[in-house]
Amino acid sequence: MVNVQALKPETARNKDSAHEADHPTSLVALFGADQPLRLDCGVDLAPFQIAYQTYGTLNADRSNAILVCHALTGDQHVGNPHPVTGKPGWWNTLLGPGKALDTDRYFVICSNVLGSRMGTTGPASTNPATGKLWGLDFPVITIPDMVRAQAMLIDRLGIDTLFAVVGGSMGGMQTLQWSTAYPKRVFSALAVACSTRHSAQNIAFHELGRQAVMADPDWHGGRYFEEGSYPHRGLGVARMAAHITYLSDAALHRKFGRRMQDRDLPTFSFDADFQVESYLRYQGSSFVERFDANSYLYLTRAMDYFDVAADHNGVLAEAYRGTQTRFCVVSFTSDWLFPTTESRATVHALNAGGARVSFAEIETDKGHDAFLLDVPEFIDISRAFLESAGAVRGLIAEK
Amino acid sequence: MVNVQALKPETARNKDSAHEADHPTSLVALFGADQPLRLDCGVDLAPFQIAYQTYGTLNADRSNAILVCHALTGDQHVGNPHPVTGKPGWWNTLLGPGKALDTDRYFVICSNVLGSRMGTTGPASTNPATGKLWGLDFPVITIPDMVRAQAMLIDRLGIDTLFAVVGGSMGGMQTLQWSTAYPKRVFSALAVACSTRHSAQNIAFHELGRQAVMADPDWHGGRYFEEGSYPHRGLGVARMAAHITYLSDAALHRKFGRRMQDRDLPTFSFDADFQVESYLRYQGSSFVERFDANSYLYLTRAMDYFDVAADHNGVLAEAYRGTQTRFCVVSFTSDWLFPTTESRATVHALNAGGARVSFAEIETDKGHDAFLLDVPEFIDISRAFLESAGAVRGLIAEK
User: Fold this and answer.
1) Is the ipTM of this complex over 0.90?
2) Number of Cβ atoms within 10 Å of the Cβ of A297
3) Could you say which of A109, A124, A303, B202 would form a disulfide bridge with A292 (CB–CB 3.0 to 4.6 Å)?
4) CB within 8 Å of chain B, chain A residues 161-190
5) What percent of chain B has pLDDT over 70?
6) Rounded-to-integer distance, Cα B173 and Cα B330, Å
7) What predicted TM-score, i.e. pTM, was given to this entire model?
8) What pLDDT was estimated at residue B286?
9) Which chain B residue shows the shortest CA-CA distance from A314?
């Protein structure tokens, strides 16, 4: 019998993580029945809550606020240890005193997106109308819905205009949506490794991930908590697929090549002979512990639906016509999920709309993940863009 | 409750397909206990059988035989309707009277690879020692094992030297293996959309597919037939993943873009709103009916293990040193599974080894699948290469 190693099942979902959905280790803004969130699908969501973190101090003019928008598998813990995993803030390379997102100068806000599972209302939250978890009763949401919720939070914080909206990947989508939905409230926008619409290939990869989750009998039509199960295998497979797309062929080759895992010769089995197999299995298993399977369905769906031009008769430039926002668009050469061609299309539309826009394509073999990694050129460009905008905004003395 | 459409379960595996494993609609070469196949894992496989198809007539000199090697999901039915699906031969673009693989001139042989499920011994075959299906008791095989089995078939047919070995993708790997294992038996070799070793990214995609299969409870550790089940969902997800890699971003955009399926507006559900989703689901479901889940594990594993240089102290050129074989290597610009860089590495090694080699990179947006499609430039190059080699071989009057 050939030796087999499949993804390890977990007996129960991480309890800390489950707790975070309703009772997050974060600041929480509650919105009551009188403040519904109008969703694109037509549903008024109320009540609901937004969990968020802040760093630095809001100045007297309320003019130094930066909203950081997180990616699909990120959350609001951009600059502090994660309450469930204990890992450092996911953008520690960029955020902190003296860094690009300089907490000595700026007031940085990061909120958990709608549909996520770290304290903002989503399928893993309790539906107050039933006392049960929302599960698939949660309405399907969009990137504009996420941004509309964030705008309600920014209102609640008494901030009229954000100095900057910043984000990569799905966070970049939110940044681009902020800029078209609330152009006067966004002084500057830094959109990294993203696009104004999801490509057919990206929809295909997301659909693959969703099918992997829904194919797992432990998913139980989204009612896994009620059934006392968890679709760890399906979500693990979905994560493995996504993780491959976050890296580049070159990065995988550099990191792993065809090197064997703790052995010199093949075992002639389905064991993880190659390091890259072992790595992927780990990525799949560890992700399952910190994420929610239904949230994964909802957030990937929101990205798939994203198409800024669609609301402007298919003309992207119209979405940004006459904008006063200062834009910086960044792509990475080896990012094949959001390739430079996508960023160029965004830049062309911004130019056509008359926007101030700078664009940088950064040479790296780190793939889409580069926006989360220590890539000095990216960090320098982010800092320079925010400093330049900060000088115009009067936040920084001009050099 | 959000509308959900998951991959449709099939109640039973296609019975015709199951029958083909032991009793193929093909010619069969039986190898008895006295003719074991020595496998790389150290096992002597005996007895075993090879199912194959032939087209055209072997000449008196036995000098006009072409061996076509099929890809991962292909089989021996290269030029006739498939006995299970009824679909036309998978390389009808290339094979037939007057075509590149000219059945008026050449005797074309295509055998089902070892480990497959269309009549050559594999995990879906009955193990004569137990009377049960092999399943995961079948030894893990390699590309060199497949080629060694094919050489036994060629011996059986009384053919000393093949006029040509031809194949794409996994078939191209076999072609390159034939050329190094039996250099004097291969007059010419046409290796398309392939590589002498599987990249880390390709191993990663295969591991994803295997985990999807093994995560399906209906897989039952490979004993699904005994359990009366079939891992249709896991294999469907694996196929969806693989299918994305067979196409290109550009091809998906051209074929589907962001077009909706039979609707104008999003349904705000997990239904297949986009055409690309519907297409992928169909690809997943239809594949499941004609393939065997365990075979998928074995054949992907064989590809992962493939590394010609590894048997030559890591020096690929040594594998082809002094060869007299005429080579033609073909790649496609949009093939990201076996990109042109891989083919160039093969060509450089062949050059360094002193081989006669021509190389063509064909401009197309059809991705890896291009080798199976009607791509006129590829068809013309294949014909020209075989005609040129045929003239030297004395099969065709020189022009």
Assistant:
1) yes
2) 27
3) A124
4) none
5) 95
6) 13
7) 0.94
8) 86
9) B258
Nearest to B99 by CA among B165, B55, B148, B63: B55
Task: State the pLDDT at residue A386.
Answer: 98
pLDDT single digits (tens) A185-229: 999 999 999 999 999 999 999 999 999 999 999 999 999 999 999
| CB-CB neighbors (< 8 A) of B136 in chain A | 1-2, 4
Instruction: Please tell me which residue in B77, B206, B232, B368 is annotated as part of the active site.
Output: B368
Q: Report CB contact under 8 Å: A258, B339.
A: no
Q: Provide the annotated active-site residues of A.
A: 169, 335, 368
Quote the CA–CA distance of A186 and A128 in Å, as a whole number: 34
Read off the pLDDT of each residue in B194-217 and give the average, rounded to a whole number.
Answer: 96
**Contact flag B249-A207 (C-beta cutoff 8 Å):** no
**Per residue, what are the HEC states of chain A?**
CCCECCCCCCCCCCHHHHHHHHCCCCEEEEECCCCCEECCCCCEECCEEEEEEEECCCCCCCCCEEEEECCCCCCCCCCCCCCCCCCCCCCCCCEECCCCEECCCCEEEEECCCCCCCCCCCCCCECCCCCCECHHHCCCCCHHHHHHHHHHHHHHCCCCCEEEEEEECHHHHHHHHHHHHCHHHEEEEEEECCCCECCHHHHHHHHHHHHHHHHCHHHHHHCCCCCCCCCHHHHHHHHHHHHHHHCCHHHHHHHCCCCECCCCCCCCCECCCEHHHHHHHHHHHHHHHHCCHHHHHHHHHHHHHCEHHHHHCCCHHHHCCCCCCEEEEEEECCCCCCCHHHHHHHHHHHHHCCCEEEEEEECCCCCHHHHHCCCHHHHHHHHHHHHHHHHHHCCCCCC
Note if B169 is an active site residue: yes
Q: What pLDDT does B398 receive? A: 58
Q: Does A122 touch chain B (CB under 8 A)?
A: no
How many cross-chain Cβ pairs, A to B, lie less than 8 Å apart? 185
DSSP class of B135:
G
Q: Which residues of B touch A200 (CB under 8 A)?
A: 249, 252-253, 255-258, 274, 276
B200 touches chain A (CB under 8 A): yes
Cβ pair A212:B237 closer than 8 A: yes
CA A81 to chain centre: 17
Q: What is the DSSP string of B10-67?
A: PSS--HHHHHHHHS-SSEEEEE-TTS-EE-TTS-EE-SEEEEEEEES---TTS--EEE
Strand-pairing partners, residue B329, are: B191, B359
What would the pLDDT profile of B271-327 be if each residue is shown by its tens digit? 999 999 999 999 888 888 889 999 999 999 999 999 999 989 999 999 999 999 999
Cα–Cα distance list, A319 to A105, A111, A347 (Å):
31, 25, 12
Judged by CB atoms closer than 8 Å, whether chains meet at A252 and B7 is answered as no
**Which residues of B are less than 8 Å from A288 in CB distance?**
none
Q: Which residues contact B385 (CB under 8 A, 6 or more apart)?
A: B188, B190, B326, B328, B358
- All domains of chain B in start order, with CATH: 15-202+307-393 (3.40.50.1820), 203-300 (1.10.1740.110)
Minimum-distance CB partner of A205 among B201, B244, B269: B244
Helices B200-215, A232-246: crossing angle, 10 deg rounding:
170
Query: Residue B182 is inside which H or E element, if any?
Result: none
Q: Which residues of A touch B270 (CB under 8 A)?
A: 140, 210, 214, 297, 301
User: Chain A partners of B2 at a C-beta cutoff of 8 Å?
Assistant: 136-140, 222
In a mutational test of the A interface, the residue from B277, B282, B311, B368 whose CB has the highest number of chain A CBs within 10 Å is B277
Tell whether A160 lies on the interface with B, counting CB pairs under 8 A. no
Q: How far, in Å, CA of B127 to CA of B125, rounded?
A: 6
User: Which of B:290-309 have CB within 8 Å of A?
Assistant: 297, 301, 304-305, 307
